[in-house]
Amino acid sequence: MRPSRRDVSELRPVSIETGVTKHAEGSCLIRMGDTHVLCTATLEERVPPFLKNSGLGWVTAEYGMLPRATTTRMRREAAQGKQGGRTVEIQRLIGRSLRAGVDRVALGERQITIDCDVIQADGGTRCASITGGWVALRLAVNKLMKTGEVISDPLVDPVAAVSCGIYAGQPVLDLDYPEDSEAGVDGNFVMTGSGKLIEVQMSAEGSTYTRAQMNALLDLAEKGVAELVAAQKAAIGA
C-alpha cells in the first residue's frame, strides 16, 4: 500500500489555475498533490548575445524554492550569495525541456523566460515546474500570436514531466515525498504530448533495477504524461 493509498499507476490530484499574476505574459499555479509551483512567463524582445542576429528565439528558465516550502526553513539563496548546485541543475533541465517543444525559427529573435517558484514541496517539484512552465509558455505565445507578432505557432508539441520509481519493490507513478525519500529507484521522465522522450533521469538509491523494471517505469511515465497533457490542454481551453 502506498502512503497516499493511491494505485501504483495513479497520479496525485492535479490542478492548473491560469492567470494568477497580473503582470506576467503567461502564468499558472500548478498543484500536484501537496506540491504547488507558481510558473510565470516573461517576454523580452532580445536574445542572449550568442543568438544575436541569428533569427532564432530562446526559451530559458529559473527555479527557486520559498524558505518555508519544506518542513523546515531554508535560507534564501540570495542571502547566501549564490545558487546551489541543485537549483542550477533543475533550472537548466526546465529550460532545455521546454525548448524541445519549440520551433525557435517561428518564435523569432525574442526570449521567453519561465520562472518557477516552489510555494510548497512534497516531491516532484522539477516535474511540476516543467508541466506548469509549459502552460505559462503557451499563454505567453498565445499573446504573441494574437497581436500578430508571431504568425506560425512556435509550440510544436506540449511538454510535461512526471516522476516514477520503485517503492516497496513495486514500480509506482508520481512519487510524493514519503515515497521519494524511501524509493530504491527513482526517475524523472520528460516527454512530449506525442509521446516522444526529451529526457530521462534515473538512478538507483541503494538498490539496482532491471531492464524490465525500467520498461515498467517508462510505461507508467507515458500514462502519467498523457494525463498531464490533458490537464494542460484543459487549463488553456484547448
UniProtKB/TrEMBL annotation:
Residues 10-140, 157-224 form the Exoribonuclease phosphorolytic domain. GO terms for biological process: rRNA 3'-end processing; rRNA catabolic process; tRNA processing. Signal peptide: none annotated. The keyword Cell wall biogenesis/degradation does not apply. It holds the Pfam family RNase_PH. SUPFAM superfamilies: Ribonuclease PH domain 2-like, Ribosomal protein S5 domain 2-like. It catalyses: tRNA(n+1) + phosphate = tRNA(n) + a ribonucleoside 5'-diphosphate. Keywords: Nucleotidyltransferase, RNA-binding, rRNA processing, Transferase, tRNA processing, tRNA-binding. Its EC number is 2.7.7.56. It comes from the Bacteria. Phosphorolytic 3'-5' exoribonuclease that plays an important role in tRNA 3'-end maturation. Removes nucleotide residues following the 3'-CCA terminus of tRNAs; can also add nucleotides to the ends of RNA molecules by using nucleoside diphosphates as substrates, but this may not be physiologically important. Probably plays a role in initiation of 16S rRNA degradation (leading to ribosome degradation) during starvation. NCBIfam families: RNasePH. This is Ribonuclease PH.
